[in-house]
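Design request, tokens follow.
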């Protein structure tokens, strides 16, 4: 149920409200606020931990995007599972990072065999996780201390709407924020985010194509101004099936190509601009644009709720965040956006990610890459045997094979 909406931008808004201290906690030593802040920042540096969660974006009462995630992180490895088109965790959609090795499924070939991609390099582990924000070594660095001071400044003297209870050494901290309680500094930050969301919109429309000469229009809508630029390009031929497969799998080939009528064509003469016209944008220009992809006029927090469980050692165990934001676009339309985000932290300090492909870390090493391909830095592609191990005969640097 995924659609082309700016969920990351609005997630950032809610995260900014919550992590900036807008879920009003008293900023005094030993207070729920201090306990919450420390546990949250510590959670952002967990290395041996398993995280499972879900995010839902609802716009005007309709669920626009819903996804689940699972991440197993260790000191020298990280395994992430992504959600499928239904929003559920899929064992076939993952990304594994270890020492000098990243592996992920690539695509399923016409013969039914799935292909995988491995990036090999001589070096240390590079985390691939989208859920880690701060490196553990930087947790007590000067930059982090500055961040904490900035959060404290945003909180100010707000001291209401917070509860903390405790049972079996588990502390539960809850807080709620209404629109009138948002600090002025944070409101200014929301205005900046509104400008960020208000990025120009681009549309491309074919005017004509006779097999050789391709004419098209690029339309740029920046706030209330529409600029239409007409281009002409000469092509020589469509890509061969082998070239097309290589482009789709690797993302690039050694040819200048353009996309026409659902196919790639080789460019013979580079595009040139024919004309350019500017006019006021109208409501009709936004008819086919998702509500949150329209330039924003303002963002306003309507409601934010935060709830977290923290154990006796100060470890974050669960995090449950909900927020409602009213986004007003330049047409004056108000869209009510609700974000719900939950995450559970488990096996803190004991999680050990395991590579999903047996023997991959022992086989796909810089030495192997140097011996077989002449370079320690290499991206290779392969299929698997029936037992799940790598089919060594299939290993290739050509993603079009198979």
């Amino acid at each position: 149920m995924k659609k082309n909406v700016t969920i990351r931008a609005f997630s950032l808004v809610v995260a900014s409200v919550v992590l900036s201290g807008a879920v009003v906690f008293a900023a005094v030593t030993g207070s729920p606020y201090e306990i919450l802040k420390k546990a949250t920042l510590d959670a952002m540096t967990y290395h041996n931990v398993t995280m499972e969660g879900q995010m839902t974006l609802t716009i005007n009462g309709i669920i626009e995007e819903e996804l689940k995630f699972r991440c197993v992180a260790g000191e020298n490895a990280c395994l992430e599972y992504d959600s499928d088109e239904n929003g559920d965790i899929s064992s076939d959609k993952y990304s594994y990072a270890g020492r000098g090795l990243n592996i992920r499924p690539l695509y399923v070939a016409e013969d039914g065999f799935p292909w995988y991609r491995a990036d090999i390099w001589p070096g240390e582990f590079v985390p691939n996780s989208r859920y880690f924000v701060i490196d553990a070594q930087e947790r007590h660095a000067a930059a982090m201390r500055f961040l904490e001071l900035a959060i404290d400044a945003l909180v100010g003297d707000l001291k209401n709407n917070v509860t903390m209870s405790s049972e079996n050494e588990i502390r539960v901290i809850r807080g709620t924020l209404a629109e009138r309680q948002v600090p002025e500094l944070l409101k200014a930050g929301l205005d900046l985010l509104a400008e960020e969301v208000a990025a120009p919109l681009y549309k491309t429309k074919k005017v004509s194509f006779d097999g050789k000469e391709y004419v098209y229009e690029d339309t740029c809508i920046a706030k209330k101004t529409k600029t239409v630029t007409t281009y002409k390009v000469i092509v020589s031929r469509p890509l061969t099936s082998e070239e097309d497969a290589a482009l789709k799998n690797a993302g690039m080939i050694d040819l200048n190509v353009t996309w026409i009528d659902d196919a790639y064509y080789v460019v013979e003469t580079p595009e040139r601009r024919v004309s350019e016209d500017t006019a006021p944008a109208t409501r009709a220009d936004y008819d086919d644009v998702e509500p949150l992809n329209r330039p924003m006029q303002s963002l306003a927090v309507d409601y934010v709720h935060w709830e977290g469980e923290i154990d006796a050692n100060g470890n974050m165990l669960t995090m449950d965040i909900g927020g409602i934001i009213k986004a007003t676009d330049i047409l004056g339309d108000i869209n009510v956006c609700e974000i719900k985000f939950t995450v559970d932290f488990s096996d803190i300090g004991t999680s050990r990610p395991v590579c999903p492909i047996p023997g991959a870390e022992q086989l796909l090493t810089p030495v192997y890459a140097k011996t077989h391909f002449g370079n320690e830095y290499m991206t290779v592609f392969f299929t698997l045997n029936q037992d799940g191990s790598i089919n060594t005969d299939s290993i290739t640097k050509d993603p079009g094979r198979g």
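Comment from the thread starter after seeing the answer: thanks! The two ends are 31 Å apart (CA to CA).
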